[in-house]
Amino acid sequence: MSEFIYRAIVIGVGATVLFDLWAQFLRLFGMPKPAWAMPGRWFGHLWRGRVAHADIGKSEPIANETALGWLFHYLVGILFAGIVLAIWGLEWARNPTFLPALIVGWATIGCGWFILQPGMGLGIAASKRPNANQIRLLNILGHTVFAIGLYGTALLTR
Questions:
Q1: Per-residue pLDDT reduced to its tens digit, 45-94
Q2: What single string gives the DSSP state of each residue in 59-100?
Q3: pLDDT value at position 30?
Q4: Cα–Cα distance between 87 and 21 in angstroms, integer?
Q5: What pLDDT, on the 0 to 100 scale, is given for residue 1?
């Protein structure tokens, strides 16, 4: 069990760091820096029993919501690394292949599109945003990078 937890943390953090480096790379092309305050606010409201917001920006602020957003972001990365390990086993971490990482990485797109974005008032797959297709493309690319991070970190730590 301790190896499972260790590997989930290391692989999840590694994959999330690569995701964050990708976001920084996109800033070279004029993309805004990631704003983790609103996901932090959404996550904070979950503990109060509120899942859906008409507009998360107009919901009551949560203390330290930016830090909470970053924490949430990394905990989700660790959780998804744990899902890879739970489905494909510790043997996957000892001898990683790309397909399991890609499957789980792409599943994270669905979580954003069907849980987080609607919960924050952005609509399913950001459908209420004027640049919904751009957001969707960036989600697909970013979470593919996350999948590469799952695989790459597993390779580096096997």
A1: 999 999 999 999 999 999 999 999 999 999 999 999 999 999 999 999 99
A2: SPP-TTHHHHHHHHHHHHHHHHHHHHHHHH-HHHHHS--HHH
A3: 94
A4: 27
A5: 84
User: Residues 12-35: pLDDT tens digits?
Assistant: 999 999 999 999 999 999 999 889
Q: What are phi and psi of 157, to 5 degrees?
A: -110, 5
Q: Report the length, in residues, of the chain.
A: 158
- Where along the chain do its domains lie? 2-157
Q: Concatenated DSSP letters for the chain?
A: -HHHHHHHHHHHHHHHHHHHHHHHHHHTTTPPPP--HHHHHHHHHHTTT----S-GGGSPP-TTHHHHHHHHHHHHHHHHHHHHHHHH-HHHHHS--HHHHHHHHHHHHHHIIIIIHHHTTS-GGGTTSTTHHHHHHHHHHHHHHHHHHHHHHHHHH-
